[in-house]
Structures are given as C-alpha cells and as structure tokens.
Amino acid sequence: MRGWGQVMSAGLVGERIAGYEVECELGRGGMAVVYRARDLRLERTVALKLLTPDMVRNDTFRRRFAHEQRAAAALDHPHIVPIFEAGEANGVLYIAMRYVPGLDLRALLDRDGPLPVKTALRIAAQVASALDAAHEHDLVHRDVKPGNVLVARGTDSDHPEHVYLTDFGLTKKSLSLTGLTSVGEFVGTLDYVAPEQIAGRPVDGRCDLYSLACVVYEALAGGPPFQRDDSMELLWAHQYDQPPALSERRPDVPPAMDEVVARALAKVPEDRYDSCLEFVAALRTTAQGPAPEPAAHPPAQADRAVGALPHPPLWARPVFERRPGH
Prior knowledge:
36% of the residues are buried. The protein has two domains: 4-98, Phosphorylase Kinase, domain 1 (2-Layer Sandwich), CATH 3.30.200.20; 103-288, Transferase(Phosphotransferase) domain 1 (Transferase(Phosphotransferase), domain 1, Orthogonal Bundle). The strands form three sheets. A six-stranded antiparallel beta sheet has the order 1-2-3-4-6-5. A three-stranded antiparallel beta sheet has the order 7-9-10. Helix 5 (117-136) packs antiparallel against helix 11. It has 13 helices and eleven strands. With 326 residues, the chain is of the alpha+beta class.
C-alpha cells in the first residue's frame, strides 16, 4: 500500500484495498478521494471512499467514524446511497457504497445551468425526503451541497430522475456536537453552511434545511444565495446578510416563492420550517400559483356542443387540465 502522498499524485488504479479492486477515480476533496472499484467477493461495482491519514491517526475520529458509519448504514431509504461496508485497511479508513451512475447535481448545474422549476423541485423533494429520514434517526448530514446529490436516470417520464443523497460519513448525532469536528476541522461547504454551524452552536436537522434551501436557490438562480470573494466575507454573509430575493435572480419564478426561500434561509433555526419536506411542499404550492376561477355563467353553446371538441369549454378546463404536481 503506497503512502497518501502517492495516492494523491498517482492514484490507486489497479490496486486492491480490503477486497476491492480500484478501477478509476470519481472525485476528490480535502478529506477523501472516491474511486469506482470492483467488489471481488460479490462481483459488483461500488464507490470506494478513502479518508486521509490525518483522520486515521486521530483516535477520537476513528471511534466516531466507526459509530457513525454503523448509524448511517442503518438508514434504509430509497434516496440515501446505501453503505455496504466501512473499516480500516493498511492505515486508510474506507467506506464502500453503492455505485450510482450518472452526474451529481454540481456537474449537472455546471453543464446545463439553472434548472426548470419542475425539475429543481423534483430533485429537492427527493433530497428532502432523505434528510427527514436521517433526522428521524437523530442524524444530521451537515454537508448538503450539489456535489453530494447524485442524479441517476429515473424509471419513467413521470419520474425522470432518481436522486440519491450521499456522504453521510461526516454526520454527527444532532444536538450533541457543534459544527466543528473533534479534530478541529470545520464540516460543511461554505456556500451552503448554516449560521449556527459557523458560530459553533449545537446543530439539528434545521441546519440541513438551510443548506437544502441554498442548494435549491442555486439550482433555480444559477448561483448560491451568497457569493463573496473572501471566505470570511462569505461566513459573515451567512450569519448577518439577507440573500437577494430569488425572483431578482430568476424573474420567471412566482414572487411568492421568495417568502418561502427566505423563511428556509432564516438566520435563527426556530424561524425556519420544521422539516425539509414542509419546505419543499411550500415551494410547490407557490410554484403552482392560485387555481383559476371558473366562469360564473358558462357559455350556453357549450351545453349544445356535439361530438369531440378540440379543447374542453372554458368552464370545464379546471377538471380536464392537470396542474403541475397533481
């Protein structure tokens, strides 16, 4: 097994780690590298995440890692990437997860730009469902971002995407620890981090709701709510500045959506929605707009119409026309 410096420079393609043969690199960050690998025991493709040796050398982190991987692996939800195995091999902590073909939301936004409202809300609903399920188990993700949202092909035209939330490897029991890890590393990506995480206060599922709102904002507007040149300025903005109204960045969205997003991005957790799905439901309601009012007196000729009509009469359209989300 080569050292971490060699791993970062040359990768591990072709090598075997804990029964997995590394095939190619999928992505990397400051704390880990993710590879596509072959499970030699079960003959299946997996995503193999390797954490940096700094984490391995910290006994507190290693104990927390083992505990939280067991908790994350127990989450059985259609929109959470299943964890097959987690452990340590040759001085490297690893996590073997389901391999999900397709793009992550970060790559999708970089390729296509802002998403149609319907698409963004379909993706948001699936992520929200995954987060609420984790919160029910007293787990807080704390790093919800486009790169951790995997977008796979869906089952049919009504479900064109199947979304998975990944990277529960750095979660913590809610209300028990602050936004800083026990080894002094800040967990969370600055564009999407909640104010209470920045301040080092205890966190619960509402910090994930804040991050989800940032992700939805970016999916619709083409950029996160706060954009600053300096990291400290960005942290300050999350804590004290008000984000631009979504409709200013995306004029075609209903103005009522601004209020929904603003509530989800409230600085104080108690001022936000109680759950992620409640937030998405509010978004869907505003996206649909008010229902059309039927005519007080239907045209008389509509009652005398015979045979198939190219369109239903005006007074009947609320019945024939299916509104988005119904």
